[in-house]
Amino acid sequence: MSEVVQITKNNDFSKGPIWKCIVVQAIPLTLAQIVQLLYNVVDRIYIGHLPGADSMALTGIGLTFPVVTLIMAFASLFGMGGTPLFSIARGAKEDEEAEYIMGNVFTLLLITSCILFTFCFIFRKPILYLFGASDESFVYADEYLRVYLFGLVFSMIVTGMNGFINAQGFPGVGMFTTVIGAALNMILDPIFIFGMHMGVTGAAVATVISQMVSAIWVIMFLTGKKPMLKLKRSCMWLQGKRVRDISQLGLSGFIMHGTNCVVQVICNVNLQVFGGDLYVGIMTVLNSVKEILGVPVGGISSGAQPVLGFTYGAKEFKRLKEGMRFAIIVGIAYAVFAWILVMTLPEFFFKIFSDDADILSAGPKVLHIYFFGFIFMAFQYAGQSIFQALGFAKRAIFFSMFRKVIIVIPLILILPQTGLGVYGVFLAEPISNAIGGILCFTTMWLTVYRKL
C-alpha cells in the first residue's frame, strides 16, 4: 500500500511493479470519465422516459449529437492546441508567453462560440433536416437545440480552458470542474423536466445552467490567487504567430472530432432513409451504451499512456513490454466481459434509456448486430494508446481516421443498398471494429513491440 502511495505522490513510474503504476493512474482517470459520462447521458435517460413523447424525444436528442460534436471539435482545436504550448512555455520559465497563450486561447474560444452560435441558431432548421430530422422529430430536436445553443460559449470555455488548470498542477480542481457540472445537471434535470413540466426544453435549460456554473468556476479559478499563471485581460489580444501555432497543434483533435461529426450525420441520414425516426432513436441508445461500456477500456488506455511514455523515455524496454502486455490483457479481458454482458442483457440496457414499446421491441436485435465486434475495440484502444504514449501520434491519428473515414463511412453508404436495409447501417460498426482494430493492433505489434 505504501508503495502505491509513493507512486501517486511522486509520479515516479520507475518504482514498484509497472502494473501498479498503470492501475494508480487509471483509477482516477476512469472515475473522471464516469463523471463526464453522467454529464452526457443523464439528459438522454430522463428524456427517454418522458411521458407521452414515445421515441421521438430521444430521436430528437440524437439528431443534435453532430452539432454538439462540431462544437467540441472547435473547443479541442484551441484547447488541445494551446495547453501543450502553455506547458512548454511554463517549463522554459517563459511565464509571460504562457499567459499570452492562455489569453489567446480564451479569446479564440469566445470569437468562435459567437460565430457558431449565430450560424447554428439562424440555420438550425436546415441543419437538423440535413442531419436526418423528419417533421415529427424536428420538433423535439429544435426544442432542445435552440436552448442548448445559448450555453455554447460556456461549454467551449469549460472544454477549452480546463486544461490550463491541470497544466498548472491542479488536477483535483480540474476534475471538480466536471463534477460540479455533472452533479448540478443530474439535480436540475428532474426538476425542470418533470417537476416544472418543461420536457425537452427543461433538459436543455438544466444543461445550460450546469455549463454556465462550470465555466464561471474555471474563470474564477484562473483569475484567482491560487494559480501562478493567471488569465489576464492584457494577454487576450490575438497575435498571428500564437494563433497559428495553437491551431496547428490542435488540428489533430479537431480532425478526430470533425470526422466523428461526419460519421454521425451520415449514419443518421441513412437510418432515416432506411428505417425512419425509430432507428435514429435506437442509435441514440446504442451510442449511449457504447459510451458506458467504453469507459473502463478508455481509463486503462489513458492510465497506461504516461507510464509507458515515461518507461520508454527511460529506455527500460523489458519493463515497458511488461506494461504493454498488462494493458493489452486487461483491456481485452474487460472487452470480453462487456461483450458477454451486453449480448445477454440487451433489454436491460434499452430499459435504462427508454420505456417506449417500439424501441424495446426492435432494439435488442439491432444491439446484437451493432455490438457483435465490440471486443475488437480493445485492440483499437491498445494500439492507438501505445502509439500515443511512445510519441507516434501520426500513426494513432491515421488508424482513428482509417476506421472512421476509410471503413465506416463507405460501409454505411454501401451495405444498406445491398438488400440489408437499415441493418446494413448497424452492421458497419462491427465490421469496422474488426478490420480497424486488428490492423491497428498488428501494426503496433510488428513496428513497436517486437522492435523494443
By DSSP (H or I, 4+ residues per run), the number of helices equals 17
Q: What is the total tally of β strands? A: 0
> Considering DSSP H and I runs of 4 or more, what fraction of the residues is helical?
over 70%
Largest sheet: none
Sketch the topology as an H/E string, one letter per element: HHHHHHHHHHHHHHHHH
Number of separate structural domains: 2
The N- to C-terminal Cα distance equals 31 Å
Please, what is the average pLDDT? 86
Class based on secondary structure composition and strand pairing: mainly alpha
Proportion of strand residues? under 5%
- Low-pLDDT sequence parts: 1-10
Radius of gyration over all CA atoms, rounded: 22 Å
Morphology call: globular
Commentary on this structure:
- It is built from 17 helices and no strands.
- It folds into 2 domains: 1-20 and 276-452, no CATH class; 49-274, no CATH class.
- The longest helix has 37 residues, at 277-313.
- It has helices at 2-10, 18-48, 56-91, 95-122, 124-130, 135-148, 152-166, 171-195, 199-222, 240-274, 277-313, 317-344, 346-353, 357-370, 376-389, 393-414, 422-447.
